[in-house]
Design a protein that fits this description.
Oligomer: single chain
Helix content: 40-55%
Low-confidence stretches: 1-11, 382-386, 464-484
Shape: elongated
Order of helices and strands: HHHHHHHEEEEHEHEHHEHEHEHEEH
CATH superfamily of the largest domain: Vaccinia Virus protein VP39
Number of strands: 11
Number of domains: 2
Distance between the termini: 65 Å
Largest sheet: 7 strands, mixed
Strand content: 5-15%
CATH architecture of the largest domain: 3-Layer(aba) Sandwich
Number of helices: 15
Mean pLDDT: 88
Radius of gyration: 29 Å
CATH class of the largest domain: Alpha Beta
Length: 544
């Protein structure tokens, strides 16, 4: 009979509904599933922290270090539950499913309605880490209740199942859960799988080791957890709409999730739109000209037949470049095709960028700017004298920081840009807020000089941010200092410092004059921080 156990079963062994070998396999399967779910929770917290707070390296370090510490604490606390391992594991998995499954929704709610999610992030990292850390000791106790033979082999099997499960969870998150279900629904589904695996294992395999009261408590706990997660999954669309309105206001016109980020356009039909990327105001339609005119036009003094724009997928820098009729070709290198698609099709954004992408002189390359410059340099070297260098390069990129954008502000990146420039060519760089982060700004300047450029620092300003409390412009930060629209800019030329002025044939500009440029240069010099080393790929120096 399948329910009969050998008379030689070790003391403390439980009566199982299957043979010990099958029971052992079911426990290892639970280890596999729980490990996969645990890593999904971990990656979910890292992804949300990077999205909601920014500075992906810092946030990943905080989440991972806190969770690893908490896992050690959980392993120690699990010793108190080993005498009642089955009940303890069942309740632990129910709690982990509820916390992990709801973590994304709670963090996003904190971000949307409170404006701060760091405390919740650390709290979830601690709690989830403690619960994950307690899993293996309890599972070890359960599998030893089935059979005490080959303890070393049991440990190896448990850790093998745990590591393989982590691999599957780590791959499932970016390739399946995130693109197919999104962060919120993906976390909720993971929690449901976690609850079914943990609760099902205990309530079925170890049911004869439980009292009637324990079975009832576990059953009610898992039913409640599944009901909460299912209800949240049903309401997730309404929640997203409400949270989006809390973040962006009531006039959200377009909200799309691209492969790289969330892109949102807001604004009433009678005013220029505001463009948000990952919750940060990238373009304020009412005064974006202050930034884009200051960025582009000083670099257009001199030859300008070939222009390269790195970033700037919204088409606003392109608009300013195309105001010079002698520009023969403009190449835009943008990493996110969704931004370019919106800049080509949304009526408000198309009107704001002056139908820039309809101009036959404009060519778009969907690529990472660093990789594109590297490939273009290799291709140019192979082509020899036939390569057409650029007269102007406009680096319209996000704020420098210890993130994926750090390499776009490195000495190596500027070296690649120098290879693409022709003789006398100019490079203009957006280098972040000068007043709020002067060391970051002057580190960009030091990196340019280390790459062989002469530089002219200057600053542009706009009015205070008025949209949902977020900093406008290309700065992906919510610091109060950044809310002043303080844009630190650098005009550079290989071998010598260029003259900071406007072209003699500059079109009529709304916010930039020779006087404002001179004033911006004086303000920039007054903030100078000397002696800073350059930022490199191997040693990024942009503090959070």
């Amino acid at each position: 009979m399948i329910d009969q156990q050998p008379t030689s079963a070790p003391q403390g062994a439980v009566r199982l509904p299957v043979r010990p070998r099958a029971g052992r396999g079911l426990v290892l399967a639970a280890v596999f599933v729980c490990a996969a779910c645990g890593l999904v929770y971990e990656l979910e917290l890292v992804a949300l922290a990077s999205y909601l707070i920014g500075d992906s390296v810092t946030q990943a370090s905080v989440v991972l270090s806190v969770m690893v510490f908490a896992m050690g604490v959980g392993s120690l606390l699990a010793k108190r539950l080993r005498c009642r391992a089955a009940v303890g594991f069942g309740l632990l998995e129910a709690a982990l499913a509820l916390l992990g499954g709801s973590s994304a929704m709670v963090l996003y709610a904190c971000f949307a309605w409170i404006g701060e999610s760091r405390v919740a992030l650390v709290g979830f990292s601690l709690a989830i880490g403690v619960l994950i850390g307690a899993e293996i000791p309890l599972l070890m106790s359960l599998i030893q209740r089935i059979s005490r033979r080959d303890a070393e082999g049991t440990v190896a099997d448990l850790f093998a199942a745990d590591y393989v499960g982590a691999l599957v969870g780590g791959l499932a998150f970016p390739f399946l859960l995130l693109p197919w279900l999104g962060q919120l629904t993906g976390a909720l589904l993971t929690g449901a799988v976690n609850a079914v695996a943990g609760g099902g294992l205990v309530l079925w395999l170890f049911r004869r080791d439980l009292t009637a009261r324990a079975r009832g408590v576990l059953l009610v706990a898992n039913v409640v957890v599944l009901a909460v997660l299912a209800t949240a999954a049903v309401l997730v669309d309404d929640f997203e709409r409400a949270a989006r309105q809390a973040v962006y206001g009531d006039d959200v016109r377009v909200a799309v999730l691209t492969e790289m980020q969330e892109v949102v356009l807001t604004g009433a039909p009678d005013r220029p739109p505001d463009l948000f990327l990952d919750g940060r105001l990238r373009v304020s339609g009412r005064d974006e000209h202050r930034y884009h005119e200051s960025l582009v036009h000083p670099a257009m003094r001199g030859s300008r037949g070939q222009v390269l724009i790195l970033g700037g997928g919204d088409g606003l820098a392109v608009r300013e470049v195309l105001r010079y009729p002698d520009v023969r070709a403009v190449t835009v290198v943008e990493a996110d095709p969704g931004v370019v698609r919106l800049a080509r099709t949304d009526p408000g954004l198309v009107e704001l960028n002056g139908h820039a992408y309809r101009d036959p002189r404009v060519r778009v390359e969907i690529a990472d700017a660093f990789s594109w410059l590297r490939a273009a340099g290799s291709a140019g070297a192979a082509a020899g004298a036939g390569r057409q260098p650029y007269d102007v390069i406009v680096a319209d990129l996000p704020n420098p920081g210890i993130t994926a954008s750090a390499k776009l502000y490195s000495q190596e990146f500027y070296g690649l840009a120098a290879r693409a420039l022709g003789e006398g060519g100019r490079l203009v760089v957006h280098a972040g807020p000068m007043a709020g982060r002067p060391r970051t700004y002057w580190t960009v300047e030091a990196s340019l000089r280390a790459a062989g450029y002469g530089t002219r620092p200057y600053r542009a300003t706009g009015r205070l941010a008025e949209v949902a409390g977020f900093a406008a412009g290309p700065d992906r930060s919510t610091d109060e200092a950044d809310a002043l629209h303080d844009w630190g800019l650098l005009l550079a030329e290989t071998g010598r410092a260029p003259r900071l002025s406007l072209p003699a044939d500059a079109p009529s500009l709304r916010s930039v004059t020779p006087a404002t440029l001179a004033a911006g240069a004086r303000v920039a010099e007054s903030t100078r921080v000397d002696g800073l080393p350059p930022s490199t790929l191997m040693h990024p120096r942009y503090a959070p």
